Amino acid sequence: MAVIRDPLQLAGRRGTIYPAEFAAGFDGRIKRALTEALGLTQFGVNLTTLEPGAMSSLRHWHAKEDECVYMLEGELVLITDEGECVLKPGMAAGFPAGEANGHHLINRSPQPATYLEIGTRSKDEDATYSDVDLRAEKRDGRYRFVRKSGEPYE
Of 71, 55, 58, whose CA–CA distance to 134 is shortest? Predict the structure, then answer.
C-alpha cells in the first residue's frame, strides 16, 4: 500500500506535449501525477493547478477514454459545445468516451484553481481537438500528433 502524505510535494510538470505551434500558454498548468506515485496503472488521477490565465488543454474529446474533473479550490470556466459553465469547489464534470463534445477548463480568475483530473488509461486512444487542426493518436501507450487529415506534425 502506498500513501501520499502531501500531494503538493510531488514534482509538478508544466507545459504540454502538443506540437510547438499549439504549445504556448501551458506554463501556468501544473500537473502532479497521483496514480503514478501510487503505482496504479489502470486509471489516471492528476492533481492539477491552473494559475490565473492558464488552461487545462486545447478543447478536445476522447474516443475511448472517460474523463472526470472534481474541483477542490478556486474557480474555473468549463467550455464545451454547449457553452460555458463556472465550476467551483465541490462540483464535478464528466466527459464520456466517444461523445464528440470538445471540452477544456480556463482559469479566468485572479487566483490559482486546483482540481482532480481522473480518466481511463487506454493503451490505444484517439483524441480530436475541436478548434484546431489536431488529433492525438496513442498506440501502445505512445502519443503522436497528426492533422485531422492524418498528416503527421514534424
Answer: 58
Q: Which CATH architecture has domain 7-146?
A: Sandwich (2.60)
**For 3-62, what is each residue's pLDDT tens digit?**
999 999 999 999 999 999 999 889 999 999 999 999 999 999 999 999 999 999 999 999
DSSP 85-139: EEE-TT-EEEE-TT----BEEE--SSS-EEEEEEEE--SSEEEEETTTTEEEEEE
Cell of 24: 504556448
Helix (H) or strand (E) holding 143: strand 142-146
More confident residue, 154 or 142: 142
Contact indicator for 45, 118 with CB cutoff of 8 Å: yes
pLDDT of amino acid 154:
73
